[in-house]
Amino acid sequence: MPPRVLVSEKGEFTDSEGHEIQLRGVNLDPSVKFPATPNCRSHDPLTPSFYDEAGSVCFINHPLKLEEVEHHICKLKSLGYNTIRYPFTWEALEHEGPGIYDYDFMDYTIEVLKKINKLKGIYIYLDPHQDVWSRFTGGSGAPLWTFYCAGFQPRHFSDTEATILQNSYINPSTGKEREPYPKMLWPTNYFRLAAQTMFTLFFGGKKFAPKCVINGQNIQDYLQDRFIDAVMTFYERIQQRAPELFIDRCILGLETMNEPNIGYFTDLDMSEVPKDRKLKRGTTPTAFQTFQLGEGLPAIVDTYDISVFGPRKTGTTLIDPKGKSAWLLAAERDNVDKRYNWQRGSEWEPGTCVWRLHGVWKRKGLRKPELLIADYFACDPATGAKVDLRYFINTLFLEHYEKFRTKYRDHDKDSYLFLQPPTLQEPPRLKGTSLIDEKTIYACHFYDGMSLMFKSWNKIYNVDTLGIMREKYSNPIFSVVLGENMIRKSFRKQLAQMKEEGKELLGGHVPVFFTEIGMPFDMDSKKAYQSGDFSSQVGALDALGYALEGGNLSYSLWCYCSQNSHEWGDCWNNEDFSIWSKDNVSSVPAARAIQQSGSDSESDVISSFSTIPHGHVSGLADSEEKHLCDYDGIRALDAILRPYPVKICGNFVNAEFELSRQEYRLTINAEPRPDNASGATLIFLPKFHFPMGQTIIKTTSGTFLYDPNQQLLKWSHDSGQQSISLRGEIESSKKPEDPEGCSVM
Predict the structure, then answer these.
(1) 538: which of 27, 366, 551, 639 fits an S-S bond (Cβ 3.0–4.6 Å)?
(2) From 12, 94, 295, 516, the catalytic residue
């Protein structure tokens, strides 16, 4: 049973004895974004069944088949990981219709969680995942019926560019792309009609779409209640059918909606594309143009591409839906309402854009449409307050968070709630309020903008992504960071700033957890897949590791995908973030367990630590139990596999793993012990980097015990500030058996 995870007054994770601990692992895994039956990946051709079968899909076996769980979890444990962020989607729970739950999927998931629990040593927290609202708008998350609920006709989303799907780029006869799907095009769907309207209704329907009433509720409350009820039904079923997951401390808690989006809010003038919009790629309609296109009207829209200093306009293009509407006509809506037992308010006219319904714009026949209220979403109609990003986070988003939190605490008062605001934005100002308790965790996401958009690792220059998001620079040129060393420091500074923002706005006692962070593997047009040279990926991931370990930050890498391939990446919008790929698995069975220097024999332990006490760490595991280090298929292993403090007897000060020198340095403030007894800090020390008999250890004080099976170093040290340095190499003047190979400073 893993130790209970608690939080110190300083907002650091600790065990029950107050020792600081670090949680690290992965998101397992992106395959939950699409059904298993039929296997609707984003690179499968767009056919009528894409919509026809939406209610009868099945997500069982995503993320893993039950018989595969142990195989993949053992790989993660080989990396020293102790935590899994476990995504699931609203669609997987409630795809058939509102209130109709897929209990078979829930029970399958419970069996997966139970298998993970039996393997011991892994914490899990659950993630209600979404991207761009739904896979029907190029992402993942919500079921198809939510669009019908809003009055949409999803079959015409592609015609109206209410969304752009990778599926539409695929030739049904060949299964190959008609033309290359542009890198990172899918996030632009956040600024197209379908997803932008859904988020606006979800967070602000009562204020901005009061005519959208369904079954006596405004659509905001209707959608929020269905989402929250589905998540809590799932959570409650886990509690009832697998209480041991909580008794054994396997489940840490639940996260709020993944990457909530602001919809049309903060769009000050809907006749223009906001100048501060960071992402513009491909066709880039204004909000008003999305309305027109949605009702089948043609529009000439700007096109953009991405440059180092931001979006660059490349021209204009005509989009002509030829009269096809993204909104349900009267007969279509009647059929939908009958199917889902919906009764709409009398003011909600069919076949009409909900924003035209609310007087934002108008049209008369084929005459040119007219925008009536360009700043409709920029002002709170009840209070007159300016609707900017801070307003959204501290009012509209916060209202949903409070509702979600209340329902969660009704079910579970003891587990953690991971609060996630919009990506790369400040959290709500909740310090000292009743909405923050000792079981709240601030969930952050971080991706480096340049590496993400260009899918490359540029050692020469980069930009301050967070600084740009915070509008820190009057000119983009000032955001440039030169040289790989300064880029690494910039990453560390950005993560430190996010941690500090959390402390300032939520309270110093609230821990910070990077629930998503990662780097793409398909860098440089996938050159590594042909050459075997993953140096770009290693450099990028090492820079992230440097930034995280310097702040003692817990994290879950995005991601580990059990279906990853070189051709289609993570099987979702050409993303390729998985640290493991089936195409990197060795074809030679004997090679699947990485052969490391040295062995686990007692003689090697003695030769490594012959001048100080040696042996196995007592009380951590059965010393007879053997743990096979299975790294087969893990990519960029040098950077992924990192030493870290599993438990600190005291407080963290600093840590750094210098990959090029195979050197790890840790500094702590060790707490005083009764009768001047030594304290003990545990360090995950992978033999891949630090082979026994070939590792030099220097420290300010202490003795060591090493468990080669678990790859754990137990450092018993004095109180006060203490440092340890470990270097996995042999000095030319020394032999492996030389006792000077391990010394005390």
Answers:
(1) 639
(2) 516
Q: Which whole number is the average pLDDT over 195-204?
A: 98
Q: Which residues pair with 634 in a beta bridge?
A: 580
Q: Tell me which DSSP letter residue 165 carries.
A: -
Asked if residue 637 and residue 567 are part of one domain, the reply reads no
- Give the pLDDT confidence of 658-679 residue by residue, as tens digits: 999 999 999 999 988 776 566 7
422: containing domain = 20-141+220-263+391-588
Looking at residue 378, its amino acid is A
Close Cβ partners of 464 (under 8 Å, ≥ 6 residues apart): 472, 473, 479, 481, 490, 494
pLDDT at position 194:
98
State how far the Cα of 529 lies from the Cα of 526, in Å rounded to an integer: 6
Judgement on whether residues 618 and 491 belong to the same structural domain of the protein: no
The pLDDT of residue 172 is: 87
Q: What pLDDT digit, counting tens, does each position of 316-343 carry?
A: 999 999 999 999 999 999 999 999 999 9
Written as six digits, the tokens of 364 are 């008369």
Cβ-proximal residues to 65 (8 Å cutoff; 6+ apart), any chain: none
pTM confidence score: 0.93
* Range 344-355 average pLDDT: 97
* CATH number of residue 684's parent domain: 2.60.40
Place of tokens 């509209």: 396
Helix axes 219-241, 103-118, angle to 10 degrees: 50
Are residues 715 and 686 part of one domain? yes
In a domain, 374, yes or no: no
Are residues 622 and 561 both part of a single domain? no
- In single-letter form, the type of residue at position 454 comes to F
Q: Is residue 213 part of a domain?
A: no
User: Letter for the amino acid at 12?
Assistant: E
The pLDDT of residue 203:
98
Active site residue 658: no
Same domain for 685 and 580, yes or no, is no
- DSSP H helices in 463-551: 465-469, 484-506, 527-531, 535-550
> Could you tell me where the beta strands, DSSP code E, fall in 642-690?
644-648, 650-658, 663-670, 679-684
Q: What six digits make up the tokens of 441?
A: 């965790």
**Which tens digits make up the pLDDT trace of 390-434?**
999 999 999 999 999 999 999 999 999 999 999 999 999 999 999
Establish if 493 belongs to a structural domain. Answer: yes
Q: How confident is the model at residue 627 (pLDDT cuts 50, 70, 90)?
A: low
